[in-house]
């Protein structure tokens, strides 16, 4: 069974750094890209970026400024989202999801993590 | 930021059919396939439809998707109380070189 299990909720102050994780199991980690999706309080879903676990090649949403960095550790089949300096506007739920790509026109996130709530407040 | 347009809300009584529209452009819906996700409040999104019309294993056939040109739609037939949720369309966007999500539609079962 494919599973994506995310790290727990975080409460941070503006300016602090943070790294949240997405541990995968049930499939070969390097076979599928992983994406991160943000959901701000009471708002919709926003695509943040994706990363290829096989070579760490990544793409980010150019519409999101100063956003977090995506990385992976193949040895533990885990993806990460890292902030160097958090802002109050980073308060949101962050979801990781496995990306399926079929040919050049079929793209979808088929399995999702449970979400990590990040709260940033002074 | 490129987003796909959806009505903010839709509703129906049990047993009725509710249809949700998703409006995009040539760089997303017209060029790549559409997905639909269901998000019950307090939980993670769940894939309902992929490749415009395909249902993952376990998704009831009451849910169906279609796509034409720059628009797509999700139909929920035989509406049930457990269908109360937020529904999002999504597609790859060739101009953004990334994903775009719809604005979301809240479905209420009256």
What can you tell me about this protein's structure?
The complex is a heterodimer of chains A (122) and B (110). By secondary structure, chain A is an all-beta fold. In chain A, 0% of the residues lie in helices and 53% in strands. Chain A has no helices and eleven strands. Chain A has strands at 3-6, 10-12, 18-25, 34-39, 45-51, 58-60, 69-73, 78-83, 92-102, 106-112, 116-120. In chain A, strands 2, 4, 5, 6, 9, 10 and 11 form a seven-stranded mixed β-sheet that branches. A four-stranded antiparallel β-sheet of chain A has the order 1-3-8-7, with no helix packed on it. In chain A, a hairpin with a 3-residue loop joins β9 and β10 (106-112). Chain A starts with a strand and ends with a strand. The mean pLDDT of chain A is 96. Chain B is mainly β and 110 residues long. Helix content of chain B is 0%, strand content 45%. In chain B, strands 1, 3, 4, 7, 8 and 9 form a six-stranded mixed β-sheet that branches. In chain B, β5 and β6 (71-76) form a beta hairpin. The model of chain B has no long low-confidence stretch (mean pLDDT 96). Chains A and B meet through β5, β9 and β10 of A and β3, β7 and β8 of B.
Give the topology, please:
The complex is a heterodimer of chains A (122) and B (110).
Chain A: E1 3-6, E2 10-12, E3 18-25, E4 34-39, E5 45-51, E6 58-60, E7 69-73, E8 78-83, E9 92-102, E10 106-112, E11 116-120
Parallel strand pairs in A: 2-11
Antiparallel strand pairs in A: 1-3, 3-8, 4-5, 4-9, 5-6, 7-8, 9-10, 9-11
Chain B: E1 9-12, E2 18-23, E3 34-39, E4 46-49, E5 63-68, E6 71-76, E7 85-93, E8 98-101, E9 105-109
Parallel strand pairs in B: 1-9
Antiparallel strand pairs in B: 2-6, 3-4, 3-7, 5-6, 7-8, 7-9
